[in-house]
């Protein structure tokens, strides 16, 4: 045992001696050669480049990325970024359609988006879309009033709200208190709500216009401001609204009757920034303008009135000079393929296209796009929509509020 222990000690000393004779090398960190050259740029992305990159991302990505850092959150939620994103999306993104279905007897509005159809003589006469392939979104409400800059104005019972389909957020506004509220509290037949945008003040406003004949009230509320409806009286031209609103360059337009025994037809303009009303007189020969269903349209930068097509034809009146009361009228005849039905106009576009919905529902569900300049049509059919939503018993469109508008992604936050 003593011999083994002594041998072990000798062996250990020899090993320590050998290790001591070894040369010790000092590890010096070496730089790897950069593929960018001898003077590589630092691993840093300039702030302006980050902003430009974020501006080109879809809204779904922006919703996620605003949670990654405080810097990105402050950038994405800033008013300047949201306006730049909206302008970029409106000018560069491919055109899309936002289609909404509101059930007057229900509580939800169905929304989905489709590519804008190319209405020309060279394009195919129809295209088919499967209902199961659509990205659907439901929001509480019954009716869509209008759409402005990626936002839509929706109504539900006696309330009104603003919805951003891109972020899938709905903001409900305070209820208007009438001096003499209607007996039926489930619905509010009293007001039409129109969404507008102040180009100078960068504000969204909602105009509530009384559509009854026994009271005259116009009120305004500002998104992002106080949650209070303010009076916006129209003393010079008391009226009741009769058509959906058209938004053009900071001004809302809608058809109306002037209050009085004669009930003269007029077009009312509302300056969203100044909150002032003006009346556009309609020539005497068209004094019964609103006796039948009509809608307003931006036709080449001019206000125009379109009547709903009946028996294959319809008329359009264009306001050539409002002060001189100069109007022009054109009669359109639908192509033979679409001339045998009656239609509702559920959407108008600056391109000269209008979207028609047959009064009688068909399977598959069909929308007809008609170009006023080329007199050409294109059908967009949605397979399976009728069965999934309404069942086989649905025969007419009178129960439903269907609206089609131009759509582009918006990151606008709804806040008051």
Automatic annotation (TrEMBL):
Pfam families: F-box, FBA_3. This is F-box domain. NCBIfam families: F_box_assoc_1. PANTHER family: BNAA05G37150D PROTEIN-RELATED, F-BOX ASSOCIATED UBIQUITINATION EFFECTOR FAMILY PROTEIN. The lineage of its organism: Eukaryota, Viridiplantae, Streptophyta, Embryophyta, Tracheophyta. Residues 45-85 form the F-box domain. It comes from the Eukaryota.
């Amino acid at each position: 045992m003593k011999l083994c222990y002594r041998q072990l000690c000798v062996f250990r000393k020899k090993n320590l001696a050998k290790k001591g004779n070894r040369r010790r090398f000092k590890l010096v960190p070496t730089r790897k050669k950069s593929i960018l050259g001898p003077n590589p740029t630092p691993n840093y992305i300039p702030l302006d480049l980050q902003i430009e990159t974020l501006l080109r991302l879809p809204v779904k990505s922006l919703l996620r990325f605003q949670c990654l850092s405080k810097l990105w959150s402050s950038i994405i939620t800033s008013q300047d970024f949201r306006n730049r994103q909206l302008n970029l999306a409106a000018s560069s993104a491919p055109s899309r359609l936002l289609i909404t279905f509101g059930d007057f007897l229900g509580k939800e509005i169905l929304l989905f988006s489709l590519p804008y159809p190319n209405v020309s003589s060279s394009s195919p006469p129809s295209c088919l879309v499967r209902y199961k392939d659509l990205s659907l979104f439901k929001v509480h409400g019954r009716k869509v009033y209008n759409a402005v800059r990626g936002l839509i104005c929706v109504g539900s019972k006696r309330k009104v709200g603003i919805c951003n389909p891109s972020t899938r957020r709905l903001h409900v506004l305070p209820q208007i208190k009438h001096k003499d509220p209607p007996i039926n509290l489930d619905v509010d037949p009293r007001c039409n709500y129109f969404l507008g945008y102040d180009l100078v003040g960068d504000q969204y406003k909602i105009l509530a216009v009384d559509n009854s004949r026994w009271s005259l009230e116009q009120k305004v509320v500002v998104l992002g401001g106080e949650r209070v409806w303010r009076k916006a009286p129209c003393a010079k031209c008391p009226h009741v609204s009769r058509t959906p609103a058209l938004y053009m360059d900071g001004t809302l337009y809608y058809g109306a009757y002037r209050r009085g025994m004669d009930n003269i037809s007029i077009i009312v303009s509302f300056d969203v920034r100044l909150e002032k009303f003006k009346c556009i007189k309609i020539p005497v020969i068209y004094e019964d303008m609103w006796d039948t269903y009509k809608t307003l349209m931006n036709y080449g930068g001019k206000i125009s009135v379109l009547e709903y097509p009946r028996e294959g034809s319809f008329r359009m009146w264009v306001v050539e000079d409002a002060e001189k009361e100069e109007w022009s009228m054109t009669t359109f005849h639908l192509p033979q393929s679409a001339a045998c039905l009656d239609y509702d106009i559920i959407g108008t576009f600056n391109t000269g296209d209008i979207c028609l919905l047959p009064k009688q529902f068909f399977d598959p569900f069909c929308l007809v796009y008609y170009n006023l300049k080329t007199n050409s049509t294109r059908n967009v059919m949605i397979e399976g929509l009728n069965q999934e939503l309404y069942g086989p018993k649905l025969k007419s469109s009178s129960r439903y509020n269907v609206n089609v508008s131009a759509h582009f992604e918006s990151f606008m936050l709804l806040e008051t």
